[in-house]
Design brief:
By secondary structure, this protein is α/β, with parallel strands linked by helices. The chain contains 20 helices and eight strands. It has helices at about 10-20, 25-35, 50-60, 60-70, 95-110, 125-135, 155-165, 180-195, 210-220, 240-250, 260-275, 290-295, 300-310, 315-330, 340-355, 365-370, 380-390, 400-415, 425-430, 435-440; strands at about 5-10, 40-45, 75-80, 110-115, 140-145, 170-175, 200-205, 225-230. The chain has an eight-stranded parallel barrel, surrounded by six helices. Strand 3 (about 75-80), helix 5 (about 95-110) and strand 4 form a beta-alpha-beta unit. Helix 2 packs antiparallel against helix 11 (about 260-275) and helix 5 packs across helix 6 (about 125-135). It is globular.
């Protein structure tokens, strides 16, 4: 059995799932040296919701964060989660923008790009894979695992083959809701190994309590790499504990060869840090077996709880959790992962708070139903589709980067900011989050 690598996720998905992505760089850097010494295959430290969180909540430049983490951990591959044509935003961006973002992320320190699409529409990740390869980095094509009447083993095998044929370096299974059952994991990975030749990685959330067993069966099936999170930042909405998986194979052929004592020091550090962010922690204790049906991902749940708390609507959480799978079925069974999970979550919230299902449709719901995000996997409820078709959202006029530069330059002048339009990282920040970016830049010292 080949040696399995470990991707440590505490610096990205670990705190995104447990603490609404609130870790600051200042709380990451003191332990970076130890993380760099462990011998992980990679550390997931950027992408996902971290970019948004940095400028929206933390007054941090996400590009500065990336550069600092790369400098502090020079011996370990830095990995990010990229949403294909959505990048780290919540809509589709042009190929020109995607190419520039991947170039700058590569230059600033990303070594491994895990690229997925919320609808598993391969057309939405193919360009990103090619751009990552052009920049000389590791391109990992990922599938968003889900179960439904329109998803089966053939779905995943066909998708994986497309990823391999595109030139990707590896393939990943992204189980964001923790619904991949252990024996299904064994069957899936065994079948993948028979159909593709590139390495296979897997990420399982712990929400339903199955992740450790699924990781074990995946290793038995010959998987090449698994995601884990340091023990003090593991389980519930998060992931299986790094130390648990390592201990299970100590002294056996599949010994990971990582230093448990060093991991213990890292865990102690994050145990203390976690207490600082307790206000952002979700209410889940133990596991939530209802997610085996509802399929709501960990990061979505912790953020939903945080949002409801901010508007004094915590009592609506269970109703919304029950509404989400109904909306998902009406929308053709898309996987619940960003940005689709946010769109379905927002529509579910609206359905519950208005006490009337689909009395009104959000703009993003309309875009999703009308194909702006790609092809939905199943059949859409005709009544809702007709409603979206009869009142479509306003079409956005797509601008090229030169036009956006001029727009950004003018806004900088109006806001008494230096001309940031020639700084490509700042320009990308503006393109991804225009309104938030201007507020963020106004608060910076230049």
């Amino acid at each position: 059995m080949p040696k399995v690598g470990i991707t440590e996720v505490v610096l990205r998905d670990g705190h995104q799932s447990l603490l609404a992505t609130r870790f600051t760089l200042a709380d990451m850097l003191p332990i970076a040296k130890e993380l760099d010494q462990v011998g992980y295959w990679s550390i997931e430290s950027w992408g996902g919701a971290t970019f948004d969180s940095c400028i929206r909540y933390l007054d941090e430049d996400p590009w500065e964060r990336l550069r600092a983490l790369k400098k502090a951990m020079p011996n370990t591959q830095q990995q990010m989660l990229l949403r294909g044509q959505n990048l780290v935003g919540y809509k589709h961006y042009s190929n020109e923008v995607v190419a520039l973002f991947i170039q700058k992320a590569s230059e600033n320190g990303i070594d491994v790009f895990r690229i997925f699409d919320a609808l598993n529409d391969f057309n939405n990740i193919e360009f990103s894979i090619k751009q990552v390869k052009e920049n000389g980095k590791h391109a990992q094509g990922a599938m968003a695992y889900t179960t439904s009447p329109v998803h089966n083993l053939t779905t995943w095998l066909d998708y994986a083959k497309k990823v391999e044929d595109s030139g990707a370096d590896s393939f990943a299974i992204k189980d964001m809701a923790g619904i991949l059952k252990p024996y299904d994991a064994f069957e899936l990975i065994t079948s993948l190994k028979q159909n593709i030749s590139i390495p296979i990685h897997m990420q399982c959330h712990a929400t339903t309590g199955m992740s450790t067993a699924s990781n074990l069966k995946a290793i038995e099936a010959g998987i090449d790499n698994i995601d884990t999170s340091i023990s003090s930042m593991s389980m519930t909405y998060g992931h299986s504990a790094t130390e648990t998986l390592i201990s299970m194979f100590q002294g056996r052929d599949q010994d990971f060869g990582l230093d448990i004592s060093l991991l213990g020091k890292i865990s102690d550090y994050f145990k203390a840090i976690r207490e600082k962010y307790s206000e952002f922690e979700g209410t889940l204790k133990g596991i939530d077996s209802s997610m085996l049906v509802k399929q709501v991902p960990g990061g979505m749940l912790s953020n939903l709880e945080s949002q409801l708390k901010s508007i004094n609507q915590e009592d609506k959480l269970e109703e919304i959790k029950n509404e989400i799978p109904r909306v998902r079925e009406d929308f053709g069974f898309p996987p619940l992962v960003t940005p689709v999970s946010q769109i379905i979550g927002a529509q579910s919230l609206l359905n519950v708070t208005e006490n009337s299902r689909y009395a009104s449709l959000t703009s993003e719901t309309k875009k999703l139903l009308l194909g702006a995000y790609g092809k939905l996997p199943g059949t859409i409820n005709k009544e809702i589709l007709d409603k979206a078709s009869n009142s479509p959202p306003e079409e956005e006029i797509e601008k090229n980067i030169r036009e956006i530069k001029e727009e950004f330059k003018s806004l900088c002048q109006e806001s008494d900011l230096p001309d940031l339009s020639e700084d490509l990282e700042s320009l990308l920040t503006y393109i991804l989050f225009p309104n938030i970016a201007i507020i963020f830049f106004k608060g910076r010292n230049f």
